[in-house]
Amino acid sequence: MNPASPTRAIVLWCPDWPVFAAAREAGLDLDAPIALTEGGAVHSCSAAARRDGVARGLRLREAQYRSPALTVLPYDPALDVRAFEPVVRRVEDAVPGVQVVRPGTLAMRARGPARYYGGEDAAARALLDTARQLGPEVRVGVADGPFAAEQAARAVRSSPHVGIVAPGGSAEFLAPLPVGLVVDERTRVLLNRLGVRTLGDFAALPADDVRRRFGAAGAFAHDRAAGRESNGVAARTPPPEFEVLAEFEPPLDRIDQLAFAFRVRADEFIDRMRAVRLVCTAIRVELDDERGGRSSRSWLHPRWFTPADVVDRVRWQLQGAGTADSGLASPITALRVIPERVDSTANHEAGLWGQGPDERVHHALTRVQSMLGHEGVVTAAVGGGRMLADRQVLVPWGDRAPERREAPWPGSLPALAPASVFRERHPVALLDAAGATVAIDERGAISSPPETFAVGRTAPARVRAWAGPWPVVERWWDDARARRVHRFQLVDHDGCAWLLVRDAEGWWAEARYD
Hints:
- By secondary structure, the chain is α+β, with helices and mostly antiparallel strands.
- The protein has five domains: 8-163, MutS, DNA mismatch repair protein, domain I (3-Layer(aba) Sandwich), CATH 3.40.1170.60; 175-225, DNA polymerase, domain 1 (Orthogonal Bundle), CATH 1.10.150; 244-349, 2-Layer Sandwich (Dna Ligase, domain 1), CATH 3.30.1490.100; 352-406, no CATH class; 420-513, no CATH class.
- Helix content is 31%, strand content 30%.
- The protein has a six-stranded antiparallel barrel.
- Strand 19 (497-503) and strand 20 form a beta hairpin.
- Helix 1 (17-26) packs across helix 4 and helix 13 (263-275) packs across helix 14 (307-321).
């Protein structure tokens, strides 16, 4: 068989890519034990962490027990994609027709590179050298089909980190590998109970029986196990380049100079997207300073960015690192703006009769924000928390509201929250029939039923009904930030309902049910 057959595929694989991307973003040493977590469990970890016994799926507390020096970072799938894009573009400069299997893994047809570089081994080494220029560890595999080629790349253990499976040898190469590589966990358990533990065992089963028992997904996995891949490489069409980069020589150390110098590039940034009928609704601004540091922040827009809006976001980010006299702690050497979210202009066209009021509100608020700064104009949003005041969140105009988490918040109020929430607490006198202040003991029980109450200096009102108290305990493990209060509801003689809070200082009115 011709080694440059069209069915041959080359796969470039970057081990521990999520860890590499997160460590580089955070400026961490890759040789240190690092773990990325998702949902309280380890999503991926570095080689040093694995040597300490950390593994994927391990609970965070157990991982920290096994590796006391473990650095824990949250897993960010968007960062994986964003950080892998330069690698994809660098490889596409050397070999066109690349398919992104997932962040950290690329596939391409072997025929073209093998012809150009003079063989599959030479093509694999050229791709290896190309990708390594950007820093990550890279391995390359060549076989009959992308799946077998990826397994060949993963099987490489020594330099030069190139694994080549001879044409027609994919089935033999895959045979000793575990069957869990091609089926889901439930099917793997079932096959193991039947004595089918390797891909060779699975491939030996009759194809018709596998299709009848496991359906189309099982038939697809059976073909993979046997080295027969019906799906080849689906090369992507490279997206248009919208990113703009401004380099300053000599570096600039004043905010006004940087904002003025970037105005032309901001116009170019928006014009490139307008040329293909796109608008940008989210950008990321990256600043490189003279000391080698990098500041990166994502910015959202309530509608879409104009050149002036882009310059405003750059200026606001610079002001976050600047001083009162518009100077910077370290001069800026490069400024980069990258679109994170784009959309078709057709989805943002005005209606037949226009959108006058909304446009006027948007332009007015944006104008005020440009004069007062990013946090000069805010909108109200509902966030998570146990106390009502904690749930009131002010979001700068144009930013995304925080994700609202309804649970778990033990001690929080159920639905039908009070209409009036007091940001400043109002003192309350809650008295019993003898005129003594109602107290709450250590077991959460009141000393006597309440008879009257008064908010501030108002006249005492009679209590018609009451309920509670309910304890609210936060950060009990931190004496400096711990909060232990009790909530209490009552209805006065006018039928108005109140939500009260009892702490170490006394009774307070938290809200009123209007």
